[in-house]
Amino acid sequence: MADADLSPPDGPVRTITDLARLAGVSAGTVSRALAGNSLVNARTRERIQQLARAHGFQLNQMASNLRRQRTGVVGVAIPLGHDRRQQISDAFFMTLLGHLADELTEHGHDLMLRRVIPDRDEDWLARFTGSGMVDGLIVIGQSDQFARIEAAAAHYLPMVVWGNHQEGQRHCVVGTDNRLGGRLAAERLLAAGATKLAFFGDTAPIEFAARFAGASDVAAQAGVPIIACPTPLAVDRMPGEIARHLARHASRIDGIFAATDTLAVACLKQLHERGLAVPERMRLVGFDDLPVAGQTTPPLTSIRQDIAAGARGLVDLLLRRLAGENTESLVLPPELVVRATA
Amino acid sequence: MADADLSPPDGPVRTITDLARLAGVSAGTVSRALAGNSLVNARTRERIQQLARAHGFQLNQMASNLRRQRTGVVGVAIPLGHDRRQQISDAFFMTLLGHLADELTEHGHDLMLRRVIPDRDEDWLARFTGSGMVDGLIVIGQSDQFARIEAAAAHYLPMVVWGNHQEGQRHCVVGTDNRLGGRLAAERLLAAGATKLAFFGDTAPIEFAARFAGASDVAAQAGVPIIACPTPLAVDRMPGEIARHLARHASRIDGIFAATDTLAVACLKQLHERGLAVPERMRLVGFDDLPVAGQTTPPLTSIRQDIAAGARGLVDLLLRRLAGENTESLVLPPELVVRATA
DNA sequence: ATGAAAGCGCTAACAG
DNA sequence: CTGTTAGCGCTTTCAT
């Protein structure tokens, strides 16, 4: 009767119960053994883990998560506002995402990425936080969703947002001091000899608005004019818009503050084509200090955002919120990196 | 006795059962109503959906998934081989990821992103596919994991890989014909007057090896020398290595094929600094045709990979595999984009 | 058209 | 130290 199992076709071992039968113990014991629980006899634990490995057994996370009421997954939402397609392919956001993946992996969390189009889906936030699929949420970019995020923050603690900090806001945000960054940019342009400034970029997104505001502060203080040249981030439309602005305003400006390096690089090209020498005839400062900034000719002066530090901050704060702490926002200092364009 | 519910403090309605009690029906009915099941009376269905909306009710996906044995989530794994940190921040991979997110969202799937370090975790693949957390898997880049991926493909159907196609391989792959791309690059260099070639890039990754092989084919056929200059992709080490190679070989070459545009841009800068005119003294062709290619001075000639088409292909094939079909691989044609560097 | 009941695969008391 | 038991929140037969 007692037929020893020489382990011929045992059939696939998919569940913890299969494994239990094979090991001649109960499912509970297997669960404990696999979790490395010290309450289980060291030898049986080792035996079970051996068996699991031999059969390539993998715990069903779905079931485990449901039972334990936690998932080990952090949601990352990228809301796409007006500018749609652009944001996500923007080098800055992508780099931030890469660092986030690093950090979260490091802390044993998976990352569930979701692009959301707010005007098409009113409660993208509730859908994510209420799904039970994620323990917490990181939102990359406020886009035009400031109000909705504020509202969600009232009930939902484990959420951290990359973006701009507003006086008295409720949601926890990590981001660069954009206004200060704008100031640094304008100051540099003036120091490099500029006397008539222009800002290239969309001023609707709150981050860009702050950069423009900072530059305007400095310009006003110095009694220097600054004109806003609205420029989309979409790669295909960017060069045309820049060309148009330059055709109209080039004669009246000698210093450009570009809202992002991507824009600055495009400006550089247009300036070159129009024969406007940089920095002699036209000074140029970008924002972000992407890797490309060091590669252009001439190399681009830019305002550096420490993306890695930003990612670390986002994850650190989120983890603390997951632990119940009501954390403060984190504002990172921008840094002027002087190269050759201003 | 029959106290009507004027809905005072009903307490939070978190589960389908809460909702059922509120609606005065059974949980089963609520489940059907929320699923839009036509078997439920149209009026009660509407009433329940109303109630759900009013209370901001969200279905617990975890439980739903467990029961239905599907998740609506597609895993995306990025294996980091030797070059570690680099791959993920590489503009090409990031762009591909962005398009993937687009496509998957479009088809109603979420995306679970996981960076894996194969040498640190032997069964990263099994851990992902067996977790029950994802319905299928997209692997971005074969890195040095060709064998492991082949092995997994034997048991696991719903997996598609971005990378290079090998004769007779088992796993389903989507990627550019790198060898052909290499050929196009070399042919262009020769057509532009080059007579002594160099390849800049790491030849260990299988994709790059194929690019080099293609270029070598052409060089051999034309009786022209080509030397391999191993160059890491890491941003910090790249310029130094390029400078070293140029110092050693610049006099003996007049055409460079760079394995990626990122590398090509760095080359351009180094060439400029050494006073080597492009394309007069040195022709240069990149690979990928990233947005930056159009922005350099002079604009970069490059071999275009259609990233959006690649993402569409990956998702399309994966969906068909999820439906049980055993799909063929998809090889995309590269395209020479002539600008000014060759 | 709806309710009752069984269970997806796992974990965590609670007993022994 | 280990087995038994009761669910996590949902979906889906099977009855009615």
Describe the structure.
The structure is a homodimer of 342-residue chains. Chain A starts with 15 loop residues before the first helix and ends in a 5-residue tail after the last strand. Chain A is built from 13 helices and twelve strands. The first copy, chain A, is of the alpha/beta class and 342 residues long. In chain A, strands 2-1-3-4-5-11 form a six-stranded parallel beta sheet. The first copy, chain A, folds into three domains: 53 residues, 434 Repressor (Amino-terminal Domain), CATH 1.10.260; 130 residues, Response regulator (Rossmann fold); 127 residues, Response regulator (Rossmann fold). In chain A, helix 9 runs parallel beside helix 10. At the A-B interface, helix 4, helix 6, strand 2, helix 7 and helix 12 of A face helix 4, helix 6, strand 2, helix 7 and helix 12 of B.
What are the main properties of this structure?
homodimer, 434 Repressor (Amino-terminal Domain), Rossmann fold, 3 domains, six-stranded parallel β-sheet, six-stranded mixed β-sheet, 43% helix, 16% strand, disordered N terminus, DNA-binding
Largest sheet strand order of chain A: 2-1-3-4-5-11
Query: Which ranges of chain A are low-confidence, i.e. pLDDT below 50, for 5 or more consecutive residues?
Result: 1-8
Please identify the top-level CATH class of the largest domain in chain A: Alpha Beta
Distance between the termini of chain A: 88 Å
CATH topology of the largest domain in chain A: Rossmann fold
